[in-house]
Amino acid sequence: MKITLVNHSDTLGGASVVTFRLMQALRALGVDARMLVTRKSGDSPFVVQAAPRWRSRLPFLAEHLDIFLHNGFSKANLFKASIATCGLPLSQHPLIRQADAVILNWVNQGMLSLDEIGRIAALKPTLWTMHDMWNLTGICHHAGDCPNFTTRCHDCPLLGSGAGPHDLSARCFDRKDALYGGAGIRFVSVSSWLTRKAAESSLLGKRDVTTIPVAFPVAEYSRPAAATRASLGLPDNKKLIVMCAARLDDPIKGLPVAIDALNSLNADAVAVFVGAIRDPHALDGLAMPHIALGPVGETTVRAVMAHADIVLSSSSYESFGATLLEGQAAGATPVGYTHDGRADIISDGATGYSAGTDPTDARALARALTRALTQPIPAERLAAGAARFSGEAVARRYIDLLARDAEA
């Protein structure tokens, strides 16, 4: 079987990392799986860049100019919206033409238009894995407290003065509705929470959505540390609380809430931050001893997690929460809010500690951290909880789903 996985990048962002892992897991089972991307950063021979960078930039710029013209010329929310009006002609690409099936993933930022997705689905059996809420809203990737996606998007908060009953979000919502009604696309959600959100939406509420978690290399993260604490710049004889994200000071990641919670602790511990921080003053308010390692490769992430005592997620929302799973597989106790996809990872007191469902409640997060520090969950129990997310288990579920569709 030949499967082409389509994603914006192979390494940049959470959806890219887990899509690449899924490709690897499929290949390990004998599937001829390859990735088609617009931004290739790694060196895998099984990842193909769809077009020269300049060619990929054209639809990206055109789409964001359109959003800019419709949101009152505001930069504030420019990159929080996607409209899929422009993209590359990937239905003509050899990897699509030669595939037995196509798995779409995060295909925004000018990679694919909705029209082109329809053309791909007309050619090949197509699954679309949802990594956030964009598939079930008009233009946003997370609806927050906005209920419009349950009926029909309009008066979008991201459009400012450009919002209205027939605004850009409403038009994009209608285009998605038309596509979903005729394309025969099967949707996959990466978490139970996202599946529930899909059920609440008028776009996907009556359509078949299958929950399959992200593929995860459990065995790789379960191995002993590949580097010493000293070589990683980490202190000995201190408990380590690790927080990891592509960009830690992205407002979604809840860094100020994490700082408030950490400042409430009375513990001989060090906070370790892994990932980019754009604001040089973002950690100025943190009283606890801390280390910022900056962006690092996956090998270093695995080594850090192997030494961690706690892995922390303070995000306002996560469709899944892969960094918690990384820590869990390595033996670090996960701590985070569980109003979203993180509930699939954290079973309170069994595979982690829940801070509840209010992602602004720093006191609840501090209480969960204190429990994790004083009552760490045994590493073998954490590893057992992570096993169900193994790459092989997840890849087999995709193969089975495609096989059922082929028989239908």
Overview of the structural elements:
The model has no long low-confidence stretch (mean pLDDT 95). It is globular, with a radius of gyration of 21 Å. 36% of the residues lie in helices and 15% in strands. The two termini are 17 Å apart. It has 408 residues and is an alpha/beta fold. Helix 1 crosses helix 14 and helix 9 crosses helix 12.
Question: What's this model, at a glance?
Answer:
The chain is an alpha/beta fold and 408 residues long. Helix content is 36%, strand content 15%. The relative contact order is 0.11.
Task: Walk me through the topology.
Layout (H helix, E strand, L loop, with lengths): L1 E5 L7 H15 L3 E6 L9 E3 L3 H18 L23 H4 L3 E4 L9 H10 L2 E5 L37 H16 L2 E4 L2 H9 L8 E3 L6 H5 L6 H4 L6 E9 L7 H9 L5 E8 L13 E5 L3 H10 L2 E4 L8 H9 L2 E4 L16 E2 L7 H13 L4 H8 L4 H17 L1
Parallel strand pairs: 1-2, 1-4, 2-3, 4-5, 5-6, 6-7, 8-9, 8-11, 9-10, 11-12, 12-13
- What is the topology, as strand order, of the major beta sheet? 3-2-1-4-5-6-7
Write the element-wise H/E pattern from the N-terminal end onward. Answer: EHEEHHEHEHEHEHHEHEEHEHEEHHH
Report how far the terminal alpha carbons are from each other.
17 Å
The gross shape turns out to be: globular
- Major β-sheet, in short? 7 strands, parallel
Which structural class matches the secondary elements?
Answer: alpha/beta
